[in-house]
Amino acid sequence: MSIAAPSAPSATATDDVYSTLKTRIFENTLEPGRFVLQETLAAELGVSRTPVREALIRLEREGLVEIRPRRGMRVLPVSRHDMTEIYEVLAVLEAEAARLAAQRAPPEMIDALQSAADDMDSAIAVSDRLAWAEADDRFHKLLADASGNARLKRMVAIITDQA
User: Fold this and answer.
1) How far apart are CA 158 and CA 59, in angstroms?
2) What is the DSSP code string of 5-38?
3) How many CB atoms are located within 10 Å of the residue 12 CB?
């Protein structure tokens, strides 16, 4: 008779919980400083505690939450000092992404970057902050893509998410 090993949480359940929690953090539905028990999150999301725990570990590695035994998780606030550090790191990573993009990116990728920059200028001209933010986000994602370096792209995404 063999004993089956417990099954790991499905990547899909963990990924879904991770995406949902990350969205709630970015939308400020889970406010900085707030403690939430894993059991509470699992009940709200209709999943077991395992995918919640796995998603929280990912979010903790990205610097978005802190896991506290028997207290659940706490969304980490972002201080002025944190923002300074984030943008210092991002400036270095994006400078390298731009250098690599200049060497590697196909013309259509350069055109997409120019289009995003033009959209930012247009939005500023009419004081449309939302349109500017969307174009800015698109530009930075395209720049990381254009570098052709998957690790650099992931690092930029992690640092950008912390901002």
Assistant:
1) 10
2) PPPPPPHHHHHHHHHHHHHHHHTTSS-TT-EE-H
3) 9
pLDDT tens, N- to C-terminus, the chain (163 residues): 444 444 455 568 999 999 999 989 888 889 888 899 999 999 999 999 999 999 999 999 988 899 988 778 999 888 889 889 989 999 999 999 999 999 999 999 999 999 999 999 999 999 999 899 899 999 999 999 999 999 999 999 888 877 7
Give burial (CB, 10 Å; 0-12/13-18/19+) of 61: exposed
Residue 60: both structure tokens together: 């903790």
For residue 65, the cross-strand partners are 75
**Cα separation, 69 vs 143, whole angstroms:** 39
- What lies within 8 Å, CB to CB, of 79 at 6+ separation is none
Long-range contacts made by residues 21-27, C-beta under 8 angstroms, separation at least 24?
21/55, 21/56, 21/59, 21/65, 22/59, 22/64, 22/161, 25/59, 25/64, 25/65, 25/75, 26/161
| CB 22 within 8 Å of CB 162 | no
